[in-house]
């Protein structure tokens, strides 16, 4: 599968100045910018910047950023699922995961998360993928936003809807361990029926494995 990538962008104003949402960008373009030290949701900012530059150069990897002048203040990543996750079983070339999305507190309130997803999906090639996001409440910034679990989930669902991702049932043990957790999915218009069927087996892998053992 040839993982084509076409650059898109959106520019808008905030009270802190103009912001550009753009991508997907390769690592040599990312290196032109600084990475805000507040982007620490997954690991220290300098390590996260190295991680996203690595993802950017994967064949299927995509990094879309939000930047204020020359500083990255938000980003979203797409790549094949982690080899240790159920979603990697079958090595589906047309399955990619929204692995991380983050925006610094200063720029929250400008729908930057939604804009990152919107710009991501401007690339027509994204219609060749099944795109997933695994949402676990213990990764959510409840303290920083002041929202409870259910209000945060509503905000998260609205943001994901900007990219066409909607909740989808699964029997994944981690996801069903709490009712706020969920699997978000977008199935591209050009995804084959055989890939959809294979993905359905992954969504209900526990059930499928049980049937195979009987």
From TrEMBL:
Signal sequence, start to end: none
GO process terms (BP): acetoin catabolic process
Domain of life: Bacteria
Single Gene Ontology MF annotation: acetoin dehydrogenase (NAD+) activity
Annotated InterPro entries: AcuA (IPR024699), Acyl_CoA_acyltransferase (IPR016181), GNAT_dom (IPR000182)
N-acetyltransferase domain boundaries: 28-189
PROSITE patterns: GNAT
Stated name of the protein: Acetoin utilization protein AcuA
Organism this protein belongs to: Halobacillus faecis
Gene name as annotated: acuA
